[in-house]
Design brief:
transcription, alpha+beta, 4-stranded antiparallel β-sheet, 20% strand, Tscrpt_reg_AsnC/Lrp_C, Dimeric_a/b-barrel, DNA-binding
Length: 151
């Protein structure tokens, strides 16, 4: 990956809807060369995709929580099956394996505290292999999802 690729990534993080022509002008390459580079970055999965960043409150998701999840290793050994189930829940918008006292940290959204509580107890705790949860309610989002610090 060279400086042109890094520049493409920086500009696409700032504006994923930028036209190829405008992007080419910004990085000082021809439009065909720029398009070829963008497609290569997409094929190599350097660019994972393009999404609109939606304000959760605007779509009725007024509560965000971070949930630490531990697995019950004695009763359940198929970790990948637990992960498949976690990925299927639309309320879980991020899931990461972590080191330390817990196995995963989840970023969860819900309409309100009652909905969050129901999701945690009636859905998440019912997944075979889940031993325990610890949730932390987000009081205020200071810095929402942003691009990576590239170059």
């Amino acid at each position: 990956m060279d400086n042109y690729d890094l520049s493409i990534l920086r500009h696409l993080q700032d504006d994923g809807r930028i036209s190829n022509l405008h992007l080419a002008e910004k990085i000082h390459l021809s439009a065909p060369q720029t398009l070829r580079r963008v497609r290569t970055l997409e094929e190599k999965k350097v660019i994972r995709g393009y999404v609109a960043q939606v304000a959760p409150q605007a779509v009725g998701l007024g509560v965000m929580a971070f949930v630490n999840l531990s697995l019950d290793r004695e009763q359940f050994r198929n970790v990948r099956e637990v992960e498949r189930q976690l990925m299927a829940f639309p309320n879980i918008i991020e899931c990461h394996t972590i080191s330390g006292d817990f196995d995963y940290i989840l970023k969860v959204v819900a309409a309100d505290l009652k909905s969050l509580s129901l999701f945690l107890t009636d859905t998440l705790m019912q997944v075979p292999g889940v031993a325990s949860l610890r949730s932390m309610i987000c009081m205020e989002e200071i810095k929402p999802v942003s691009g990576l610090p590239i170059g």
